[in-house]
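Lecture 7, part 2: worked example. A protein chain together with heme C.
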Amino acid sequence: MKRKLLFLFALSIMLMSIQAWAAQGNKENGKTIYDKKCWWCHGDKGAGDGPVAGKYATPRPFSDPYMNARTAGHIYHVVSRGNFVMPSYATQIEPQDRWKIVHYVEQELQKKSQPRATSEEVVSQ
Ligand code: HEC
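Predicted complex, written out as structure tokens:
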């Protein structure tokens, strides 16, 4: 009985580390694709300061309340369909990879562990 419990405990630790490793991998892949496709305009830290930004149209930084309030679904939609001057990436980036970018944007650029902007703040932008 004790051995069975120990085995289950070890198994769950193993599964948790695999899960953490997979999430990390997702973030890494998301960064790689972001650096290839989005960096040009949005910049490597998402500040809207990529090399093309000034010459074309400058996106807001992902840290400002408006950009910070964009949800995962919305970001996915924008990458898939484009938004005003931003082009669509539907033919260039597979859906799975679009989600990896979304994950990266949320975790690393919007820093979603911080409090989100309230809807009033967003409306007043
Ligand atoms: C050619 C330049 C360019 C590239 C490349 C680009 N964007 Fe944008 N993006 C913009 C500009 C400019 C805006 C702000 C105006 C607009 O929405 O068109 C914007 C807006 C956005 C928004 C906010 C839309 C809203 O709700 O107002 C998101 C989210 C976004 N981009 C994500 C991405 C991601 C993720 C990528 C990479 C797949 C990417 N962008 C690639 C130029 C670009």
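The chain has a mean pLDDT of 85. The first helix runs from residue 2 to 37. Keep this in mind for problem set question 3.
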